[in-house]
Amino acid sequence: MACGALAEELDAVLSGRGWEVQERYDSAPVSAHPVRVRKTACYIVLAVLLNDQNEVLMMQEAKHECYGMWYLPAGRMEPNETILEAMKREVKEETGLECEPLTLLAVEERGPIWIRFVFLARPSGGTLKAPQHADAESLQARWWDRESPALPLRARDILPLMDLAVRYRDSPSHPMTLPEEMPCALICQRLLATFTNGAGDLWVLLSAVGAPHLPVSARTTSPCKIQNSIQVAACRLLKECCLLPQVTVRVHGVLGLQHLGKNAGKSDGVCFNVLLTVTQGGQSTQETPPELHGESFQWWKIEESSLRSRILQRLSSSSVVPIHSY
User: Fold this and answer.
1) What is the DSSP letter of 318?
2) pLDDT digits over 289-310, tens only?
3) Which CATH superfamily is domain 42-170 in?
4) pLDDT 10s digits, 169-189
5) Does domain 7-35+185-319 match CATH 3.40.1000?
């Protein structure tokens, strides 16, 4: 086993740097085709900006269906944009401010055809949009203390995101994580699937097809597969490769993600690097990992102490970007 290459891949994934997909999928539906932004997939970017008084940046909607309501700066990505370019553009268009992204706060999804990337960012320039500068993007922007005056919100789904941003700024729950600009044709997840026992031993699941590597599972963007979320797809692969049916899979969250978007129709996909744990029948007393089907996958026992410690630390504190599937 090429332990050096595997350690390098693990280090890259744990550090949020990502690892090239190379169109190598260990599980992919027959109907999987290259993603097209705004055609077969909808990516939403949303930013939470806070000032020194813990006020949050809000924008007033100009769209007919929610005219005059308030919301966080957000919008759909365009073809040939990176995720961060889209986020900065939406903040500038809707609030007048330029911003610097700090970290990905959360990933929200309704299957692979609607994914929202939530960021914490800070203002870095520009001028707050005043009512006299209203346009088709927004009527105005303002800083809001979340209490008074009470703003009529377009939707209340942003309130937990504001709370999450304040908590993260006060006490970061995961390392600062931003998308890596790396091409990917499909929406997929690279799985850092782990098993630990009572003695503190740690195993990581590998694909043994070709050079051993972390498994990569692709998803279809067919509307009939809207429930094919990150969690569902990850759990499906693990349960398919494990011999025993009573395997429990816990998805902790995202260690990082990869997207480029600069070659529309060829690099519009996203690879989520996902951390999860596997237990046998919900029990934590097993000394060895679940037995696997065939020879396509194998368990790799992590012997190197610093690498094992890094993985165990991320597991014990759930130091990952949370995923919310609806």
Assistant:
1) T
2) 999 988 899 999 999 999 999 9
3) Nucleoside Triphosphate Pyrophosphohydrolase (3.90.79.10)
4) 999 999 999 999 999 999 999
5) no
